[in-house]
Amino acid sequence: MKKAILKPIKKIALVAHDNKKTDLIEWARFNKDSLVQHKLYATGTTGKLLENELGIKINKLESGPLGGDQQIGAKIVEGEIDFLIFFWDPLEPQSHDPDIKALLRLTVVWNIPVACNRATADFIISSNLFNTEYERIIPDYETYRSRL
Question: Does 23 qualify as catalytic in the annotation?
């Protein structure tokens, strides 16, 4: 089993579908003091809204439908994202649904904490582990890779 040390300053990806952007912005506003201590990433529109609302630096990627979800997925694989806050809309069909499923799958593959709603995001941000070093277990995929 491999392990990765998550530093006290986490790399957090923030994503929200259109109908959930207000919820994410309200959550981020309430938790601004905690979030500003970390390195934040977001997909396009969400990133702009968060930057404008909170007045803090957000590393903005493409909009989700233009590949932003895939960019975050790639950053997870490369170890550049420590966890994902993704307020997704389960009632609205998305044109980029395969990308969304792939992103959520990667959080499980690489053992990245993910919150898909406000309650889970509240539990993550209020955890004692949020601002401390954490040893994350990375699944060993060598057997899988050796089959290729």
Answer: no
